[in-house]
Specification:
By secondary structure, this protein is mainly α. It has two helices and no strands. The protein has one domain. The N and C termini lie far apart (about 90 Å). Keywords: Membrane, Transmembrane, Transmembrane helix.
């Protein structure tokens, strides 16, 4: 009873081995995709922050009620930038 059972185990192992190799390939691809998505997410947050800063500077620059804030916040920064 030991030899046929061993043959069945070997046959099953030979069938499973390609599936395990394919699983590792999928795992590696998934890891690469997750790293790419993390980089995209960080860049998205960075660009959204830049858009927020630009909108705040635009509000300070255009709104006449915020003249004092514009002089203290926006003007020195723009003079330094120029």
């Amino acid at each position: 009873m030991g030899i046929p059972y061993s043959r069945e185990i070997n046959a099953a192992f030979e069938q499973v081995t390609p599936l395990v190799a394919a699983g590792f390939k999928v795992l590696r691809t998934t890891k690469n995709i997750s790293i790419l998505l993390a980089v995209i997410q960080v860049l998205t947050v960075f660009f959204l922050f830049l858009i927020l800063v630009a909108l705040l500077l635009l509000i300070y620059s255009v709104n006449p009620d915020l003249e004092r804030e514009r002089r203290t916040l926006v003007t020195p920064w723009l003079q330094w930038l120029a």
